[in-house]
Design brief:
single chain, 191 residues, alpha+beta, 4-stranded antiparallel sheet, 8 strands, elongated
Length: 191
């Protein structure tokens, strides 16, 4: 298992000791998922955390009509989980799906949570990760949804051209909270 980028990402939040690194790696495994494989199905308990080494993952729920509503897309070198379901110890409201063939490092929630209790440095990584990605990064997204138009949000998504180019039009429309037809109109307006 090539864990160098995984450990680099963890250490960018808080450096782990050799002892903690060994304990962490002992609970990890490498998995491959094919495009459209479900890593977590809505209604199930979230039993794993994932680190995305290659590929693209979508995080979505389904509305009453059966339409997928994407909340976020994860690119390479991202940590992926149904974090709120894990914290609340409840079944997930979201599906996690491989949008491309993916290689991940996966580690069980229960074993990881036990390590958090034993290793102060791992707990500090976890806190800093949550602060940055669930508070600092999430706040502008919430504001954006309340105050920006779909066109403004689309222009923001366009700033990440590599991600934009990997997504299907229906996924983009779903993420923006509009129909594919409305997305077509926005694209025509921009061009």
């Amino acid at each position: 298992m090539n864990s160098s980028e995984f450990l680099k990402q963890i250490n960018s939040y808080y450096p782990l000791s050799e002892d903690t690194t060994s304990a962490m790696m002992a609970i990890c495994s490498e998995e491959q998922y094919k495009r459209n494989d479900i890593l977590l199905e809505s209604g199930n308990m979230a039993r794993y955390y994932y680190f995305l080494q290659s590929g693209l993952i979508g995080y979505y729920t389904t509305d009453d009509e059966g339409n997928s509503i994407y909340k976020i897309f994860f690119e390479e070198n991202s940590f992926v989980a149904s974090t709120s379901a894990i914290i609340k110890n409840e079944p997930s409201d979201f599906n996690i799906i491989a949008l491309e063939d993916c290689s991940v490092i996966k580690y069980p929630v229960k074993a990881y949570r036990e390590l958090l209790e034993k290793h102060h440095d791992l707990a500090l990584f976890h806190i800093r990760y949550l602060e940055k990605n669930w508070v600092v990064k999430k706040e502008p997204l919430e504001v954006s949804l309340k105050f920006e138009t779909a066109k403004q949000r689309y222009l923001l998504l366009l700033e990440n051209k590599p991600l934009h180019n990997r997504l299907k039009q229906n996924q983009i429309a779903s993420y923006l909270g509009i129909t594919p037809t409305q997305l077509s109109r926005i694209k025509k307006e921009i061009n």
